[in-house]
């Protein structure tokens, strides 16, 4: 688009979670009409978008029907019916990023093969069909402990991943086509978000360092700028640019990296959409990841990714043993702290480790921001009005 979109332009967003909500809010600054489709008619984006459509992103008919309503389609989730997107593309609908990119990234096996074909450093891997083939490989010595199993499709936010350290962990093996990766002795986990428009312009946001909740395998805290060597920073941004160009991307992509104990940097996973590791950009960068996505898909010049202030972002996760209607504790106390920006996603029900919001904390130094973040983490809690005990079989719900 060489001209600013008009108020008649309809941008379709598949899925209306917190990422969809924040994208809708960014689009409203340009008077873009946003249509959102989600299974849940109370999803976070439902109250912010111009028009909400209830539908299943994995259902062919729902996706095609939704696509016909809008002028351009983007998405905030990978788990979408690809055949429906290909049908819409054949009809002439603009889909950004392209369905072929999404098809590659949806399947972690295809992702790994993409890295291999393009000489992108990643951990050694092999593709196996499921439990039976994994056990066979273990018994005949073709596979050894420790390793990480990732289901090729359907996994997200720690689900669909099994860490197998020894034979005692074999009960954790998942059934289904899988990527088996050698376990990396991780020193740090970092992320870079890159944007690319149709002109081939690429811009990367500053590298962030990710800290995970060990129990739920979810990102709990992000630090920007990351405490890494300049060489690692430049290598990560160069690789993110290389990936965006190899995919011929029009949109944004989050590239998650591992740095091992030998200081080797390798790509872990990628996501062709707004990402949890970019939420801090709303306040701490000149251009947010959500505005940058709009600039990229509309083929506008990309915005500055300069960091205004050092920042820490913490995810607000549902407290253990709390299920039911959400109750926020410590909200007022946290708001008293200078530089604290609180985002609540509007999810009505909480459960353990469900992402209910995030907080970005900014200050003149990263040390000061970290101190304030620790205060917020200790006092701002996501609980339920009626505490209910959970069975041991609970699973975290990320959306």
Short description:
The chain has 399 residues and is α+β, with helices and mostly antiparallel strands.
What can you see in these coordinates?
The chain is of the alpha+beta class and 399 residues long. It has 3 domains: 10-95, 3-Layer(aba) Sandwich (Rossmann fold); 124-182, Dna Ligase, domain 1; 186-384, ATP-grasp fold, B domain (D-amino Acid Aminotransferase, Chain A, domain 1), CATH 3.30.470. It is 26% helix and 29% strand. The chain has helices spanning 18-28, 60-67, 82-90, 99-106, 108-117, 131-139, 230-246, 281-284, 289-297, 331-335, 366-379, and strands at 10-14, 33-38, 51-54, 72-75, 94-95, 125-128, 147-151, 161-164, 178-182, 186-196, 202-204, 208-213, 218-224, 251-260, 265-271, 311-317, 324-329, 340-344, 349-350, 355-362, 381-384. Helix 1 (18-28) links the parallel strand 1 (10-14) and strand 2 (33-38). Helix 2 packs parallel to helix 3 and helix 4 packs across helix 5 (108-117). The protein is globular, with a radius of gyration of 21 Å.
How are the SSEs placed, and which strands pair?
Layout: E1 10-14, H1 18-28, E2 33-38, E3 51-54, H2 60-67, E4 72-75, H3 82-90, E5 94-95, H4 99-106, H5 108-117, E6 125-128, H6 131-139, E7 147-151, E8 161-164, E9 178-182, E10 186-196, E11 202-204, E12 208-213, E13 218-224, H7 230-246, E14 251-260, E15 265-271, H8 281-284, H9 289-297, E16 311-317, E17 324-329, H10 331-335, E18 340-344, E19 349-350, E20 355-362, H11 366-379, E21 381-384
């Amino acid at each position: 688009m060489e001209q600013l979109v008009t108020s008649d332009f309809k941008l379709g967003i598949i899925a209306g979670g917190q990422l969809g909500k924040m994208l809708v809010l960014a689009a409203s600054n340009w008077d873009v009409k946003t249509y959102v489709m989600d299974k849940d008619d109370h999803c976070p984006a439902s109250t912010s978008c111009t028009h909400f459509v209830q539908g299943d992103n994995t259902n062919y008919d729902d996706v095609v029907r939704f696509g016909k309503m809008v002028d351009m389609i983007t998405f905030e989730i990978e788990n979408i019916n690809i055949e429906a997107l290909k049908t819409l593309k054949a009809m002439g609908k603009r889909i950004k990023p392209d369905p072929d990119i999404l098809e590659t990234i949806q399947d972690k096996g295809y992702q790994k093969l993409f890295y291999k074909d393009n000489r992108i450093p990643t951990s050694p891997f092999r593709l196996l069909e499921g439990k039976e083939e994994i056990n066979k490989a273990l018994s005949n010595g073709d596979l050894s402990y420790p390793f990480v199993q990732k289901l090729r499709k359907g996994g997200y936010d720690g689900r669909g991943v099994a860490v197998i350290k020894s034979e005692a962990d074999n009960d954790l093996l998942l059934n289904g086509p899988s990527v088996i990766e050698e376990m990396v002795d991780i020193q740090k986990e970092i992320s870079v978000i890159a944007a690319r428009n149709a002109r081939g312009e690429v811009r990367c946001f500053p590298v962030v360092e990710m800290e995970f909740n060990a129990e739920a395998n979810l990102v709990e805290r992000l630090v920007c700028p990351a405490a890494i060597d300049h060489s690692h920073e430049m290598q990560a941004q160069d690789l993110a640019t290389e990936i965006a160009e190899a995919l011929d991307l029009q949109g944004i992509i989050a590239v998650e990296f591992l740095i091992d104990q030998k200081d080797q940097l390798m790509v872990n996973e990628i996501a062709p959409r707004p990402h949890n590791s970019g939420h801090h950009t709303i306040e701490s960068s000149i251009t947010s990841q959500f505005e940058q996505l709009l600039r990229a898909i509309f083929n506008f010049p990309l915005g500055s990714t300069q960091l205004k202030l050092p920042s820490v972002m913490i995810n607000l996760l549902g407290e253990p043993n709390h299920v039911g209607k959400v109750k926020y504790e410590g909200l007022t106390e946290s708001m008293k702290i200078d530089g604290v920006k609180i985002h609540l996603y509007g999810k009505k029900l909480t459960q353990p480790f469900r992402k209910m919001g995030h907080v970005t904390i900014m200050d003149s130094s990263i040390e000061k921001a970290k101190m304030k973040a620790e205060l917020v983490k200790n006092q701002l809690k996501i609980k339920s009005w009626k505490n209910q005990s959970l069975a041991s079989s609970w699973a975290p719900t990320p959306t």
